[in-house]
Amino acid sequence: METQTNDTRLRLLEAAALVFARHGYAASTVRMICAQAKVNGAAINYHFGSKDELYHEVLRHVRRRAYDTYPTTHGLTAVAPPHEKLRAFINSFLLRIFDEERNPGFGTLMIREMVEPTSALDMLVEEGICSLFSELVGIVRSIMGNNVEQELVYAASRSAISQCVFFLCSRSVISRLSPQQTFGPGDIELLTEQITAFTLCALNGLAKVNRVRP
Amino acid sequence: METQTNDTRLRLLEAAALVFARHGYAASTVRMICAQAKVNGAAINYHFGSKDELYHEVLRHVRRRAYDTYPTTHGLTAVAPPHEKLRAFINSFLLRIFDEERNPGFGTLMIREMVEPTSALDMLVEEGICSLFSELVGIVRSIMGNNVEQELVYAASRSAISQCVFFLCSRSVISRLSPQQTFGPGDIELLTEQITAFTLCALNGLAKVNRVRP
Amino acid sequence: METQTNDTRLRLLEAAALVFARHGYAASTVRMICAQAKVNGAAINYHFGSKDELYHEVLRHVRRRAYDTYPTTHGLTAVAPPHEKLRAFINSFLLRIFDEERNPGFGTLMIREMVEPTSALDMLVEEGICSLFSELVGIVRSIMGNNVEQELVYAASRSAISQCVFFLCSRSVISRLSPQQTFGPGDIELLTEQITAFTLCALNGLAKVNRVRP
Amino acid sequence: METQTNDTRLRLLEAAALVFARHGYAASTVRMICAQAKVNGAAINYHFGSKDELYHEVLRHVRRRAYDTYPTTHGLTAVAPPHEKLRAFINSFLLRIFDEERNPGFGTLMIREMVEPTSALDMLVEEGICSLFSELVGIVRSIMGNNVEQELVYAASRSAISQCVFFLCSRSVISRLSPQQTFGPGDIELLTEQITAFTLCALNGLAKVNRVRP
DNA sequence: TATGAATGAGGGTTCATTCAT
DNA sequence: CATGAATGAACCCTCATTCAT
Questions:
Q1: Do B7 and B110 belong together in one domain?
Q2: In A, which residues are within 8 Å of B201 by CB distance?
Q3: Are A159 and B209 within 8 A, CB to CB?
Q4: What's the CA D121/C1' F12 distance, rounded, in angstroms?
Q5: pLDDT tens by residue, C136-151
Q6: Residue C214, domain member (yes or no)
Q7: What residue is closest to E7 (Cα–C1')?
Q8: What's chain D look like in SS3?
Q9: Rounded to 5 degrees, what angle do the CA atoms D121, D124, D128 make?
Q10: Which residues of chain C have a CB within 8 Å of the CB of D165?
């Protein structure tokens, strides 16, 4: 039945997201996923054709949900001041990747895919990362002003986003160095403030010394 | 014979570093590694006992070589000015993780271990990352001065190091967005300048704003 | 399908019984068994989980079949004279362990398990050997009468059963000393008579000498 | 050196006897044996050529020692009365196979070889078992007298020896049924008496009823 | 649509043995 | 005489996948 099918498909997607996130693609077995989803062992090949195609569908699934849950605009209108936009961008980025409640597996799957890219990464870059970075570049440009070179804006944007990604890929090290860090809601707020402050100081300082003579 | 033994062991370590870096632990097979090292399929178990212990030895091996090749002091004396120390720290960090010629596999193995930690991560944190971070904190403190809170120094240090790590875990995405980026020697120099400038501006700005009243 | 499943399972059990009987547990390989059963090499792990669990199931299987084929009562009623019961006991015992046609592998598997016990022996002792010996003790007691000590009855029962077991574990030696001995149906009849006669003479003689004064 | 060689050879033989006895041929590894003997892992192939030849040498070694330690004459002269000879035969037989102190591994190795015969069994039959059985036949004949058929003497001899062998191959079952049985020196004496008594009664009874008319 | 059974390829590991020293 | 290193075959087992129903 249609309903049953969709239900099985969805349960498999959810289960696979968690299993792939926890163990990685290679170390995840279809048995683990099927057991987690409480479906038959042949269901994956039946519904998705192969483990590989399931993985692709999982990435599409979690990506779509992540951006639905935390849009990049973060409730701001286009006329909001740049520094508020920067803060909103950083905050929504951190929420997307750390809210395991609403986006289970998303952050981990993304960082795994970046570290060990598959053909799915192209899709992710094209459908999300690319426009996300463009948006950030626009915000940074509006903060630094029009008198700095584009290359500098790019570099600064990378430095800005790097501070967010860092907490994703260094999570294991950070939790070893500072065990009290849990990346819960309160932590996200604090991190947002710290990263925003650091970035704003850097952007303003760079803009001052690198202003191109008109 | 000692020489022969060490030769096989070493060839296995080198081959395993490349294979583990390229495919990850789970997707790497002992057959692949032995083929790459051109040794018998039972050699790994003979010399290391198991695939798992080989992996641990590989991490120890590449870590030691990385720090021997690019020490954190980077040729500077203790009396060098702080901003030069920061530049040296960033530069040596980038060189360590991107010089595939001299440190083959190191960067990729590190980021893999961070994203998918095994028991080997404890060793890495204790024997290297911990003191490395402390060193950076010292440099950042000397730049920001003694009138800022320790928590701010930590946050700023994380923001500084994050810009270096970023290029490790986002390599695949960056090369898709800017294909001309190859992380060769010239790129490393440029990245060093950009990250150092961004960080120095941020530290100086933060220090000014957050100075604690004496 | 039920039929198909049971068919593969059963073919594996039959094949494994023969292979384990011929080569012993350690020297038997799953490949040999699967080849003999003409099933895929992964079938054992699918149906039984492991070589070890297959072995346990094989012992259960052949034991059950052996006692179904040749019950200890051997068609006698409870009121049969003791010496006939003894004869029946010995005859059915020998048939069970030597009828390779109907109980393939049973005798050899039993003696192997006794010589090199695994955890399966506990099962065999509890589910079969124990009650079998008790039954024999009852017969011996009824022959020797109530005026002999229980310890003597036990010893005599052991001596009785030992003559049957002997042909199991000394088969290879006997066939070297008397090659005409094939343990076929005719031999079984003869052996039954010889063992019964020897035992009856011993029991009667012992009973006479060891009668406890009332 | 000669001495060292013989020492290594002997240590290997002793160690192998224990290991083969405990685990059987297939489940014993050359590593286990070499570790037990505290010699190099290649020593077996060096001194014996292969695991298989080592096994043969072990059997020869323990067999020779067993018969040196407990000769079949058991200190009796040729003129001793037949029933004393029978008792001595049974006693020395039991001692040979159960005195782990002086004949470590012998009994277990013998029963293993009988249950799972290799080419070594031919040697054992030719060099020992054959003459041993002949000797027993002689004793039984002298007890039963000359008026019984030879076939009956053979059968009775088998029944006699079977009671000794039984304790070897049923050790594991017996220790499960009667845990207090340890087959120590005291037990051997008791067993000797029980088996001798049972056998003498049987022989005398059989001789009486089966006497051939002259 | 969905499933339990079955498959062939390949996994890491262990084995007895051989080789060079 | 003796050994540590190295080998190729085979071990049991697990995998993603396919088949028959």
A1: no
A2: 201-206, 209
A3: no
A4: 31
A5: 999 999 999 998 999 9
A6: no
A7: C40
A8: CHHHHHHHHHHHHHHHHHHHHHHHHHHCCHHHHHHHHCCCCCHHHHHHCCHHHHHHHHHHHHHHHHHHHCCCCCCCCCCCCHHHHHHHHHHHHHHHHHCCCCCCCHHHHHHHHHHCCCCHHHHHHHHHHHHHHHHHHHHHHHHHCCCCCHHHHHHHHHHHHHHHHHHHHCHHHHHHHCCCCCCCHHHHHHHHHHHHHHHHHHHHHHHHHCCCCC
A9: 155
A10: 162, 166, 169-170
Contacts with D115 from chain C: Cβ below 8 Å: 108, 111-112, 115, 169, 172
Query: Based on the domain organization, do A48 and A69 belong to the same domain?
Result: no
pLDDT class for C114, splitting at 50, 70, 90? Answer: very high
Give the tens place of pLDDT for each residue, C166-181. 989 898 898 888 888 7
Write the DSSP string, B103-152: STTHHHHHHHHHHS--THHHHHIIIIIHHHHHHHHHHHHHHH-TTS-HHH
Same domain assignment for residues D93 and D196:
yes
Q: Do residues D46 and D120 both lie within one domain?
A: no
Residues C91 and C87: their CA atoms lie apart, in Å, by 6
Check whether residue C31 and residue C123 sit in a common domain. no
Q: Write the CB contacts of C6 (distance below 8 Å, at least 6 apart in sequence).
A: none
Same domain as B97, residue B7: no
Q: Across the interface, do B115 and A117 touch by the CB < 8 Å criterion?
A: no
C1 CA → F21 C1’, Å: 8
Structural domain containing residue D22? 2-54
Chains in touch with B (≥3 Cβ pairs < 8 A): A
Q: Is the pTM of this model over 0.85?
A: yes
Structure tokens at A178: 């500072």
Show which subunits contact A, needing at least 3 CB pairs below 8 angstroms.
B
Q: What is the pLDDT of residue A186?
A: 84
Number of folded domains that form chain D:
2
Which residue's CA is nearest to the C1' of nucleotide F4? B1
**Cross-chain residue pair A169–B172, CB shorter than 8 Å:** no
Q: What is the CATH number of the domain that holds C120?
A: 1.10.357.10
Q: How is residue B99 annotated by DSSP?
A: -
Q: Is A3 exposed, middle or buried (0-12, 13-18, 19+ CB in 10 A)?
A: exposed
pLDDT, position D5 = 52
A163 lies in a domain?
yes
Phi, psi of D106 (to 5 degrees): -55, -55
What is the structure's pLDDT at A111?
95
Residue-wise pLDDT tens digits, B120-157: 999 898 888 888 999 999 999 999 999 899 999 999 99
Tokens, residue D81: 């009365």
Q: C161 and D166: CB-CB below 8 Å? A: yes
Residue A141 inside a domain? The answer is: yes
**What whole-number distance in Å separates Cα of residue A50 and Cα of residue A44?**
6
Boundary (domain end) residue, out of C54, C73, C89: C54
CATH no. for residue B12? 1.10.10.60
Measured CA C20 to C1' E17 distance, in angstroms: 26
D75 lies in some domain: yes
Instruction: Using a 7 Å cut-off to protein CB atoms, list the covered nucleotides of chain F.
Output: 1-19, 21
Q: What are phi and psi of C206, to 5 degrees?
A: -65, -40
Distance D94 CA to F9 C1' (A): 43
Pair B192, B103 in one domain:
yes
Give yes or no for a contact between B55 and B120, defined as CB atoms under 8 angstroms apart: yes
For residues A30 and A134, membership in a common domain is answered with no
CA distance A158 to A149: 15
For position C65, what pLDDT does the model report?
A: 94
Q: Rounded to an integer, what is the distance from CA D170 to the centroid of its chain?
A: 14
How high does pLDDT run on average in chain A?
90
Residues in chain B with CB shorter than 8 Å from the CB of A197 are 206, 209
